[in-house]
Write a structure and sequence with these properties.
single chain; about 120 residues; mainly beta; 2 domains; 2 helices; 6 strands
């Protein structure tokens, strides 16, 4: 049986109450409140995307939120590319980010036993 990684998309729907003088102003305030964690979340949609077969000894490049790449001016994380090299513990992986080796927690791979050790 093949080992596979299935990329998934989760879309959450919620709302936040703001005060503003215009629709654009309301959108700006809503984004500010989102980054503060003040959104009241409702429903969620889930869909599958790309399917990738895992081969022993092969690394995997992913797009992820990388804490060291945080946009401090806007107090939010940004997406960056990481390369998962191998599993080194329970839900703990060796990764490469911009040439720097680091540890990573990557829940999706954990569900796929047999990732390169």
């Amino acid at each position: 049986m093949a080992k596979l990684i299935v990329n998934v998309t989760e879309t959450s729907y919620g709302s936040v109450e703001v005060e503003a003088d215009s629709i654009d102003g309301a959108r700006e305030r809503a984004e500010e409140e989102f980054h503060k964690g003040n959104v009241i979340w409702g429903s969620t949609d889930f869909s599958t995307q790309e399917v990738i077969e895992i081969e022993r000894g092969r690394t995997m490049k992913i797009e992820a939120y990388i804490h060291s790449l945080k946009d401090k001016a806007n107090d939010r994380h940004v997406l960056g590319e990481a390369e998962i090299i191998k599993e080194i513990g329970d839900n703990l992986y060796l990764a490469d980010v911009n040439g720097v080796k680091c540890t990573a927690i990557y829940n999706h791979v954990k569900r796929m036993k047999g990732y390169p050790k």
